Each structure stands twice: as C-alpha cells, then as structure tokens.
Amino acid sequence: MVITVEIAQLLVSPVHRYAGRPGDGPAGTEGEELVSRIEVRQGLGIVGDRYFARPAHRDAALTVMAAENLPVGIDTAVDLRQTRRNVLLRGVDIDAHIGSTVTLDSGTGPVVLAVRRAARPCAWMDATIGPGAQRALRGKGGVRCTPLSDGVLTVGPATFSVGPPVDVPR
Prior knowledge:
The chain is mainly β and 170 residues long. It has helices at 80-83, 124-128, 133-136; strands at 2-11, 34-35, 37-41, 45-46, 62-66, 87-90, 100-105, 111-118, 143-147, 151-154, 156-165.
C-alpha cells in the first residue's frame, strides 16, 4: 500500500555537534543544517553528512523520525536540529517499521531504505529540548536506516510504501 506523507524537514550535519557532556552544550555549526534537498547514496548515507561513508555507521547512515513524536519544547518549536535525525516525516509511524524496507519518493524517484533499528534518544535530548525529553522519546525517537538505493529526497509531499522484511541485527 502506498500512502502520501510529508517530508517536513531534512538535516545534513557535516560535523558531530553532540560530543562530551550535555551540560557543556553542543558544538557550533558551519552554516545551515536544515536543507530542502538531500542526496542519498546506496550503502553510504547522505552526501555531506558527518556519517557519510563511515564504516561504523553504514548500517545506520540515515535516521528518520515521525513529526508526530516530537516533544513540545519549553520555549521554541522542536526540530531536527535538536534531535539530530536526518529526515522528519509527517503522516506515518516510522518506528513501527523496524525490520522492513520502506520506499520514499518525493517526486525525484524512489529512495529505498532498510529500517534496521531504533534511534534511541540520549541524554543530549534533555539538554537540547528540555528536561524529560529523553524519557518522552523512548520507543519513538526514530529509526536508523541503511540506504539500499541512490536518490534524492526533498521537503514536501512524498509517497511512502513498505516492502519486504530485512535482517535486523540483534
């Protein structure tokens, strides 16, 4: 079954901003991390992202989160800059699809992803979003995916479909 979803945000971060202790705050950025378009490469991740082509991250090179699961921030709207996920989808519970392949098509051709495992929230969520965010996101902090095809995703309407299961590491 194919459903229509919205790609609400896309994030490409060339540097690792959340290192060290959350109380020290995140590192600075080099330019805008929220983008309108990302290039995905099979088995490698997102071109320009900090985890692109890194062997330790190839099975989890792209992260996806449901917009409906974002907690409400204390002073501001919460977005991908705080959660550090790459794709924010509205209209599908992506956390329910661990162990499946999913296809997203924002009009430029399909991008196939193997949904490998949960993207577990860390203590940084309490520092960037607000106290209790880490606990609130347990079980709904998004998923880590392996790109199975090359392609481009853009902000806006997209189609979403679920394909056959994949082997999920334990």
